[in-house]
Amino acid sequence: MNEGPLQVALVEAFTDTPLGGNGAGVVLLREPAGPAWMQALAARLHQSETAFLWRDTDGEWRLRWFTPSCEVPLCGHATLAAVLALGHWGQLTVGEELALHSPSGPLAVRLEGFGPASARIVLPSAGLEPQPIPPYLAQLLGEAPLAYWSSPLGYRVALMADSFDLAALDQPSAELRGQDRQGFVVMQPLGPKQPLTLAQPVDPNQPRPTKGPQVLGQPANYQLRFFAPGLGIAEDPVTGSAHALVAPYWQERLAQTSVVGWQPSPSPGGMVCTTAAAGRIALTGRGHLLWDGSLEAGSCAPDLANWGVCGP
To answer: 28, 54, 144, 225: which could form a disulfide with 7 (CB 3.0–4.6 Å)?
Structure first.
């Protein structure tokens, strides 16, 4: 392997402004790196995820994601960050589409523009499976969820009434139990204050508020927060994989092919979610390059004996 500094950047994804959204490290490799080295570097960068990119011998782009404690099979915000970093480094031009080959298969991406920087990424969207509501959640959240689902991605999802104050929810990560610890989504509709029941869909013809969260000039239809202490993430600020998972639910409820998701975390942000194909959701959002530099971190030669995803 060729020694020498590597290009590295920190990109804040799914935000219009600096010091918002979800930060992701992006490292441009010359060839595959060992999982132990990538894990150690992700821990040192200490972002919710760090993306590692390289071209294989066939010229295809490869992508892997690591939290500070483990590798994960899918990450939306670090994918958006990777696309914006590639554009910044001159590896991708505006309007150019390519596939990033990842542990979740090839992901179609496109650099939309600069000033502000924006990109479109297409993620798999696994289905939600209804489950009994764990009794402990009512006490933990302050009120009982209206519904609760599992998913093939490993995330659990709780639907709350629109009157629930999601932004004010105290971080529940320390009290989450079982599979909820591997990814817990708490979501609710945004819009006029009307009762929400499972038997009463949100009325798409109801006038929407003129103020409130907006993404790319469009008002948000729903919001969520995401907690994953089992992955080393007490709270993820803006979570692309979670929005790709739940967007079909909101599309069906609102009878829309495109919905806008918001995440009212301490570092908020959002994205436009559009159906791309069966089982695929396109996420479009903006991002901000916080810093760009060179990395001196020793040899990152691959350890083929330990190759593979260690996430859920």
So the answer is: 28
